[in-house]
TrEMBL record:
Family: Belongs to the NAD(P)-dependent epimerase/dehydratase family. dTDP-glucose dehydratase subfamily.
Keyword annotations of the record: Lyase, NAD
Catalytic reactions of this protein: dTDP-alpha-D-glucose = dTDP-4-dehydro-6-deoxy-alpha-D-glucose + H2O
The organism of origin for this protein: Sporolactobacillus spathodeae
Protein origin, superkingdom: Bacteria
All residue ranges annotated as the NAD(P)-binding domain in the record: 4-306
Protein name: dTDP-glucose 4,6-dehydratase
EC number: 4.2.1.46
Database matches in CDD domains: dTDP_GD_SDR_e (cd05246)
Length: 336
């Protein structure tokens, strides 16, 4: 396989590059990433000289560069992780989300079609299904009902992927995963924000009543699911990925505070996110029964390993938190 991994310098993408190098050492990997604020080559420092790994800095909206890269590396497989991924940023800058997530995906799909790739995989999200009440789960047939500019841009991208399957017969798959956590998670997202703020003795902002529910999956379990879908996914099919691990935000924040032996006084309830989805929960029965996927990590050990990773990689997150990220942070949360 000669695989183009877009967004490979971000959180999940860089974990997936590591996964590929480890489990498919003969495949050629091209990491194509624009290196926005979220892209970080430090995530890949340990494998930067690996013989099957290549990096190209580029935008998924840049058709000419993409065509060149597909030819140069004889790309036959695409996994599209590249996206603007943070819901809060999509509320203040929705146009960028349409440009990257919708136009970017369409450009990438079109180039992949022109180059006759064997497989195109779109990394999507459970957020495209909208918000659940206290009961029920998202299945692959749940209607799309995205609520944020982020999730609507991801849903739009999914529809384009569907169109390239129905119209042009491209071999495509879409995975829709729940919230990931683990190493290299950018500290604007809940879990790494809370871990690193707690270590710095800063306030821990909890939106609204803190009772919103997310379904959390360790990032390596997501990478294993993506690997399976790339190799065994049936053309045109969507696969939901999740670990039956629903948690209230406040419970996660308290767990992190307790594990780090910090004070609960750091926890601060702040103004709720606009349009804040109440609950996500994935039914992963299809990928389990059809492809044999099972999550390998449980949350208790996964979150401990993740906290340990942030304790051991202070340089990594301090560099991020001292850069332009602070301007975003001050805008989002005030100066504290
Ligand atoms: P991330 O923000 O950490 O990384 C995104 C990467 O994409 C960055 O490296 C960035 O530089 C790159 N990028 C952005 N715009 C680009 C462009 N125009 N061209 C090329 N590269 C560009 O995101 P993540 O959390 O790793 O998410 C990866 C994918 O998985 C996204 O598509 C996201 O929607 C999806 N997803 C994320 C989660 C989650 O919990 N984080 C869950 C389900 C699905
Ligand atoms: O400071 C915070 N305080 C807080 O209470 C932040 C950043 C978040 N939250 C809440 C909002 C959510 O209910 O925590 C929950 C998780 O928030 P995020 O980490 O921002 O994730 P979420 O909005 O659920 O989206 C994530 O999962 C699905 C990813 O960012 C998406 O890319 C993915 O598609």
């Amino acid at each position: 396989m000669n695989i183009l991994i877009t967004g490979g310098a971000g959180f999940i993408g860089s974990n997936f590059v590591h996964h590929m190098v480890r489990f498919h050492p003969k495949d050629m990997i091209v990491n194509y990433d624009l290196l926005t604020y979220a892209g970080n080559l430090e995530n890949l420092k340990d494998i930067e000289n690996h013989p099957t790994y290549h990096f190209v800095r580029g935008d998924i909206r840049n058709r000419e560069l993409l065509e060149y890269v597909f030819d140069q590396f004889n790309i036959d497989t695409v996994a599209n992780f590249a996206a603007e991924s943070h819901v809060d940023r999509s509320i203040t800058e929705p146009d960028l989300f349409v440009k990257t997530n919708v136009l970017g995906t369409q450009t990438l799909l079109d180039v992949a079609k022109g180059k006759n790739v064997k497989k195109y995989l779109q990394i999507s999200t459970d957020e495209v299904y909208g918000s659940l009440g206290p009961d029920g789960y998202f299945t692959e047939t749940t209607p799309l009902a995205p609520n944020s500019p982020y999730s609507s841009s991801k849903a739009s991208a999914d529809l384009l992927v569907r169109a390239y399957y129905e119209t042009y017969g491209m071999n495509v798959n879409i995975t829709r995963c729940s919230n990931n956590y683990g190493p290299y998670h950018f500290p604007e997202k809940l879990i790494p924000l809370v871990i690193t703020n707690a270590l710095e003795g800063k306030e821990l902002p909890v939106y609204g009543d803190g009772k919103n529910i997310r379904d959390w999956l360790y990032v390596e379990d997501h990478c294993a699911a993506i690997d399976l879908v790339l190799h065994k996914g049936i053309s045109g099919e969507i696969y939901n990925v999740g670990g039956h691990n629903e948690k209230k935000n406040i419970d996660i924040v308290e767990l992190i505070v307790d594990t780090l032996e910090k004070s609960h006084d750091l926890i601060k309830h702040v103004t709720d996110r606009l349009g804040h989805d109440r609950r996500y929960a994935i039914d992963p029965a299809k990928i389990e029964s059809e492809l044999g996927w099972r999550p390998q990590y449980n949350f208790d050990s996964g979150i401990k390993e993740t906290i340990q990773w942030y304790l051991e990689h202070e340089d990594w997150w301090r560099k991020i938190k001292s850069g332009e990220y602070m301007d975003y942070y001050k805008k989002q949360y005030g100066a504290k």
